Amino acid sequence: MSTPYAKLPGWVEYGLIPLINLAVAFLVAGLVVLLVGENPLEAAYHLINGAFGRGEYIGFTLYYATTFIFTGLAVAVAFHAGLFNIGGEGQAYVGGIGVALACLWLDQTMPWYVVFPLAILGSVFFGALWAFLPGWLQAKRGSHIVITTIMFNFIASSLMVYLLTRVLKPLGSMAPQTRTFAEGGQLPKLDWLLSIFGLDVGTAPFNISFLLALVAAFGVWALIWRTRLGYEMRTMGHSPSAARYAGIRESRITVITMMISGGLAGMMALNPIMGEQFRMQLDFVQGAGFVGIAVALMGRSHPGGIIPAAILFGVLYQGGAEIAFEMPSISRDMIVIIQGLVILFAGALENMFRPAIARAFAMRGQRAAAVVQTRGA
Amino acid sequence: MDFFHVLVVLLESTIRVSVPLVFAALAGLFTERAGVFDIGLEGKMLGAAFAAGAAAAVTQSVWIGLIAAILISVALSLVHGYASITQRGNQIVSGVAINFIVAGSTVILGEAWFRQGGRTPALAEGARFQTISFPDADMIREVPLLGPIYADLLSGHFLLTYLAFAMVPISWWILYRTRFGLRLRAVGENPGAVDTAGISVIWLRYRAVICCGILCGFAGAYLSLAMTAGFVKGMTAGKGYIALAALIFAKWRPKNVMFACLLFGFLDALAIRLQGTPLPLIGQVPVQFMQALPYILTVILLAGFIGKAIPPKAGGVPYVKER
Hints:
The structure holds 2 protein chains of 2 kinds.
Chain A: H1 10-36, H2 40-52, H3 55-80, H4 88-106, H5 112-141, H6 145-167, H7 191-195, H8 209-226, H9 228-238, H10 240-245, H11 250-267, H12 270-277, H13 288-298, H14 303-326, H15 333-348, H16 354-376
Helix pairs in contact in A: 1-15, 2-14, 3-8, 3-11, 3-13, 3-14, 4-5, 4-6, 4-11, 4-13, 5-6, 5-11, 8-9, 8-14, 9-11, 13-14, 13-15
Chain B: H1 2-33, H2 41-59, H3 62-86, H4 91-114, E1 131-132, H5 137-140, H6 146-154, E2 157-158, H7 159-177, H8 179-189, H9 191-196, H10 201-227, H11 239-249, H12 254-274, H13 287-302
């Protein structure tokens, strides 16, 4: 954006400003808690305790974080190329088809380490397919990607209801879901990882797809900052006209970026389907695609920021469940409010406090300069 | 005669479900024509529906409910305006944020204030809109053909229904026949030129955003004060997005907006009607396909296969005054 803001030190730009924005979002959320007639500090206590109080709670927090790393990375990759992929929700939902097909095909005959790679490929394929069409339509037909991806979310939702109620549902069953997978369709838990720290994971579905998420985060970093394709994507994101002038093919980058983004969103489906439910259910995505927007905005589209942001939202989801249990008037919808506030303050209003901070720094700089001058005299 | 009867019933429910779409799509028309994209129509409508339901339940007055709806919706619009006009933030991000904040807070506040699982109490007769019957509707219904059209299609709707369809020519008149409308459209195409003429781009866009808020307020009030007797959580159920689709489908023109909303409303009514009944030639159409059809049609239109939808040129771009 061409807004003329003074350049600030790195720790202010990537540390202080996001923290201030986050703090304001939480302050406003605290006001909502007050409005409901509860004590915000008590809510904060239950939040932290519910997310970290026991090994099992930490397991759940990291389980949710896994999901949000995938969807956050998906949004971030598209951001770098100047594209707003709001369709992570639909891409993750459709990506579930790939996971379910791999599991339904091989779960009774093969061990998990054979099924898992195929499920990854399947989820990436279907997620990328669902993002390919909006990307292609933007590149070749000029339709706006935000609108098409919103439409594709709704189309995905109808498609999945159709598939789960008519095609993938076992005969004679009423519930709109696939059959439960056998051993081969169930991912091993990461209990050993937590037991290193002396924690017991208990019933938490913290599974191996967390490691896959970390690999994906590294992969995204390498792609964006260490490859030619990533360079071209960033160039297009900064200045489409410069990219065109440099001979970068806009339509090609748009389509490829959207497919990478959709593939990452699709991988999210592995975590709930193979890691927790062991079957594909209706609405298993549960808004994670949209959480990805908040995560990417907070993490400044950098994997190093996305992982902590995803863990923060993991805390909100797991701790939020604890708040809802202890303080019944604050249901899990509180998370949706906080998510919206984070998107508002870290995204749309990210520059609200910038002028004041820049002024404070300019004043400090002047005073420092004045001190140097008086000493010199 | 039986077919005719079915058709009248179908068209009547088409009108009923189209009303919030018409209000919301016209709301979007005002902001988008002024160069402010708004995917927060859904959230504003939901917030307005909640405010209307809550205020009408407490005060037992339908009018206070309507005013509350408009106030909340305008307030949310101003948040969007502040983020996207004054702070020059990303308009889509801001719209997404508003949708989430409203989706969460209507449930939390509704549960805290009324303790009915996110609903507001069912409204008594005086606290909600009543249908208006045209004179002699019951007598004229017996007349073949014209009777049912008069008695069931034209008569027997809510005040807000008539207002929605009246808003179509009114919006057209405002946008195309007043100085304000001309400037509003200009600011969405070339804000620099408007600024050069000595007119404040900022203030014009804020006024457009306020118009949007008022119309979304009507849309929300219709949902909780007319269509149903009270607020139910998540009651907009994607209508804001359908309205957005209708707005694009209509290529940002008032008259087309009405027809697009009626078309999408008709598809909705048809989907409910056709549930489980096979069609000749095609066989049984899955309900899910009918539900997805408005979105599929919009995608096809956007791709330029049914004419071309060209958005306002300065849409989504914050205006930076030259220094």
